[in-house]
């Protein structure tokens, strides 16, 4: 990964059932505010998951939502991770609703993402 390559930080979140839709909307609104007001990230987007009944064991990680944060470089993404308001936001929400998360960082490669 080059120093000046756009990086996308993707979070796959699994929220506890006790977290209401109102709480989730507040979680994302506050997350967007913290990330975008930092002046470090280029964008913040989120999508709620779609619940589909399946035969998968209830103990399996079940995604509730997806968040993508884009930064102009890996160095800027590291600066965002160290941004104190972001750490405070994550600690506060995790203490109230102990959600699970999987993080994936990818370098944007225009024209190379289509596997066809």
Instruction: List the strand order in the largest sheet.
Output: 2-3-1-4
Would you report the number of β strands? 4
Poorly predicted ranges: none
Mean pLDDT: 88
Question: How does the helix and strand content classify structurally?
Answer: alpha+beta
Helix content class: 25-40%
Strand residue content: 25-35%
Radius of gyration (CA) equals 15 Å
**Outline:** globular
Please give the count of helices.
3
Terminal Cα span: 23 Å
The biggest beta sheet reads:
4 strands, antiparallel
What letter string, H or E per element, gives the SSE order?
Answer: EHEEHHE
Question: Could you describe the 3D structure shown?
Answer:
It is a single chain. The protein has 116 residues and is of the alpha+beta class. The chain has three helices and four strands; from the N terminus they run βαββααβ. Strands 2-3-1-4 form a four-stranded antiparallel β-sheet. Helix 1 runs antiparallel to helix 3. The two termini are 23 Å apart. The mean pLDDT is 88.
Attribute tags:
116 residues; 3 helices; 4 strands; 33% helix; alpha+beta; globular
Brief summary:
With 116 residues, this protein is α+β, with helices and mostly antiparallel strands. The chain contains 3 helices and 4 strands; from the N terminus they run E-H-E-E-H-H-E. Strands 2-3-1-4 form a 4-stranded antiparallel sheet.
List the helices and strands and how they pair.
Layout (H helix, E strand, L loop, with lengths): L6 E8 L6 H17 L3 E8 L16 E7 L2 H8 L2 H13 L3 E8 L9
Antiparallel strand pairs: 1-3, 1-4, 2-3
